Amino acid sequence: MANIHIRLYGIFADRINQSDTYTVNIHDQVTNIIKNICRDYSLDVSSDYELWLVNDKNPSKLIKLLENESRLYELNIRQFSNILLRTKQINPAKQPSRCLLGLPDGSEALIGKGSWLISREWLLKIVWLRDRNAFQVAKEQSEQEHSAWNSLSREQNGGHFILSYDPKVGTWSIMLKADKPPIQINGTYISPGIANPLPSQAKLQIGRSKPFIINLRLVDLD
What we know:
This protein has helices spanning 30-40, 120-130, 132-142; strands at residues 3-10, 20-25, 49-54, 62-66, 82-87, 98-102, 108-111, 114-118, 161-166, 171-176, 183-185, 188-189, 196-197, 201-206, 212-219. It has two domains: 3-87, Phosphatidylinositol 3-kinase Catalytic Subunit, Chain A, domain 1 (Ubiquitin-like (UB roll)), CATH 3.10.20; 98-219, Tumour Suppressor Smad4, CATH 2.60.200. It is of the alpha+beta class. Helix 2 (120-130) runs antiparallel to helix 3 (132-142). A hairpin with a 5-residue loop joins strand 6 and strand 7. A six-stranded antiparallel β-sheet has the order 7-6-15-14-11-12. A five-stranded mixed β-sheet has the order 2-1-5-3-4, with helices on one face.
């Protein structure tokens, strides 16, 4: 059997699923499969991508890189193997250890090393710390039907995403906790449960029709 199905994870997930079932030919080289994925998902072909075999239970755990010139059958890729597509990581340079988070009303928060669960409640606290009047305005806006604040979950402790700084490698990542609401980074949707590299400047759009905008910028204060 030349064709098999894989569970494909990656940066293309505007379907807001954790994975897509994707058909591949086990005799194809990895580089050709990447080209096919870029074509089928209308990805930017000028970017460099790579495929990884990932853990069945936790797609954020990478098992091995699939070398471009190898064919799938040589890599022991089987029916419904979990495969991650991501932009190529080549000796990533260390990033600043602080991240400046900016909200639409001008409120800002400087976060440091570690992992941060970003939720609606947490963001409102940032506004409250800056200006009590601005906080009241934000609260009132959050009650309006067409407010961007309504793109954020009202669930208690319902975090949307996790920002993490790994001191061992000196890089930031962002992981979407659940598939709703969807989140874009600089115009590209991200899949839930996968740690995505965080660029030095990022515009996050949470939700679809009236997205909530968060601007992130890495800053070096050391």
